[in-house]
């Protein structure tokens, strides 16, 4: 719903929960996600009556409920999720699926083709309860929401695979091989924002395979080669890898 005349164009200063926090206490459903509530007195109030008459759908604020929605907009995005993400509560949508995880994070659109992350300061359409047991938010999804650093720290032009020691998540060697292959494909298929894509891909790989010792120098070389075919220099690859490891505490 659009803002009421008193809140239009930010005249009210915004609600206290918004990024640019303000004093607005408007009783109407203004400011999108920031008006989300479960209070039945507000939901049934006169100020909300017109909104209920006009609304074409109902939406909710995932972050406010401690949830994250991975919004998959097409069949290719759904196929990626089925191969790369742990099973969780799934809600069918008009074009794809919503995968709902327990845990909140920063929302971000277009983290990969056909994939948006909706959690804090965002809303998702409510399309039913869905099916499946809800899982905890995985590091793979958190990594997708991290922006590449504006400036990178200097790093040497050689890297080695993590030493390992953590629990191995791989059911079979093919699981790791499929993950590396998908990472290569994600990099080589990127139409733009190559450095950001490389960084996010490195984060995703390390979040799943970086602690158990199964990731080898040969795997890293394949990722670097994919990045270099898209114009990344060896220095940029090394810095992105080093920063990804630092972000994950490896």
Please, could you describe this protein's structure?
There is one protein chain. The chain is of the alpha+beta class and 250 residues long. The protein folds into three domains: 8-56, no CATH class; 63-137, no CATH class; 173-248, no CATH class. The protein has eight helices and eight strands; from the N terminus they run H-H-E-E-H-E-E-E-E-E-E-H-H-H-H-H. Strands 2, 3, 4, 5, 6 and 8 form a six-stranded mixed sheet that branches. InterPro entries: DNA_primase/pol_bifunc_N (IPR015330). Residues 8-141 form the DNA primase/polymerase bifunctional N-terminal domain. This is DNA primase/polymerase bifunctional N-terminal domain-containing protein.
Keywords:
8 strands; 250 residues
Percent range for helical residues?
A: 25-40%
Multimerization status: single chain
Distance between the termini: 45 Å
Main pleated sheet: 6 strands, mixed
Mean pLDDT: 84
- Share of residues in strands: 5-15%
Q: Count all strands and give the number.
A: 8
Global geometry: elongated
Task: Report the total helices.
Answer: 8
Radius of gyration: 21 Å
Number of domains: 3
Structural class: alpha+beta
The helix/strand series, from N terminus to C terminus, equals: HHEEHEEEEEEHHHHH
Uncertain segments of ≥5 residues (pLDDT<50)?
Answer: 150-158
Draw up the topology in text.
Elements: H1 40-43, H2 46-54, E1 59-60, E2 67-72, H3 75-84, E3 89-92, E4 97-102, E5 108-112, E6 115-118, E7 124-125, E8 135-136, H4 139-144, H5 173-188, H6 194-209, H7 217-229, H8 234-248
Parallel strand pairs: 4-8
Antiparallel strand pairs: 1-7, 2-4, 2-6, 3-4, 5-6
Helix pairs in contact: 5-6, 5-7, 6-8
């Amino acid at each position: 719903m659009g803002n009421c005349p008193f809140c239009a164009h930010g005249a009210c200063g915004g609600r206290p929960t918004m990024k640019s926090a303000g004093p607005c206490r408007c009783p109407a459903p203004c400011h999108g996600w920031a008006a989300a509530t479960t209070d039945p007195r507000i939901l049934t109030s006169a100020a909300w009556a017109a909104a209920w008459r006009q609304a074409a759908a109902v939406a909710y604020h995932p972050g406010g409920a401690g949830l994250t929605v991975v919004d998959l907009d097409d069949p290719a995005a759904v196929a990626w999720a089925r191969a790369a993400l742990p099973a969780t509560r799934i809600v069918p949508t008009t074009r794809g699926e919503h995968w709902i995880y327990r845990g909140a994070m920063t929302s971000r659109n277009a983290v990969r083709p056909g994939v948006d992350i909706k959690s804090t300061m965002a809303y998702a359409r409510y399309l039913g309860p869905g099916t499946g047991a809800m899982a905890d938010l995985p590091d793979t999804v958190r990594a997708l929401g991290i922006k590449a650093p504006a400036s990178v720290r200097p790093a040497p032009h050689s890297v080695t695979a993590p030493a390992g020691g953590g629990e191995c998540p791989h059911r079979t060697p093919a699981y790791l091989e499929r993950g590396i292959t998908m990472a290569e494909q994600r990099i080589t298929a990127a139409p733009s924002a190559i450095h950001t894509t490389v960084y996010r891909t490195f984060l995703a790989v390390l979040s799943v395979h970086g602690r158990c010792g199964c990731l080898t120098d040969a795997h890293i070389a394949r990722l670097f080669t994919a990045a270099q075919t898209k114009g990344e220099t060896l220095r940029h690859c090394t810095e992105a890898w080093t920063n990804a490891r630092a972000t994950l505490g490896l």
